[in-house]
Amino acid sequence: MAKLIYAVPCHDVIVDRQSSDTTFIRSIEHASPTELPATLPGFFIGTLWEPQSPDPFSVSLQLKTPGGETVLLGSQEVQPGESMLHKMTFQLPGLEVKEEGRHGLQVCILEGGQWKPLTDLPLFIVKR
Length: 128
Known about the structure:
The structure is a single chain. It contains no helices and nine strands. By secondary structure, the chain is an all-beta fold. It has a single domain (about 1-125), classed as Immunoglobulin-like, CATH 2.60.40. Strands 3-9-8-5-6 form a five-stranded mixed β-sheet, with no helix packed on it. The chain has a four-stranded antiparallel β-sheet with strand order 2-1-4-7, with no helix packed on it. A hairpin with a 2-residue loop joins β8 and β9. The protein is globular.
């Protein structure tokens, strides 16, 4: 098991190789496509985890639409190793949206065979 420290949707992520410091470039909270459905340009979600044990844990990223549909965008098993923190970045090459409104980017952890959302990051879609 692990604790989610943060999750940041942004256009780009830079991790300094010497210090391991992370820079998030142009955070994302909304998009304004000219028509729907639309495929949004690619972006990243940078996350930081605090493992609670040396055991592996599984995380996923899901999209919750305004209509209540949940779409699995990706998942990964994490081997935490010996460090006290673990950084992981989801890269989304493009995200298809079908409707206006508040979408939720949910970072989840696998618990008892079910994906448990740990955060619900808003992504507002407003048609121009």
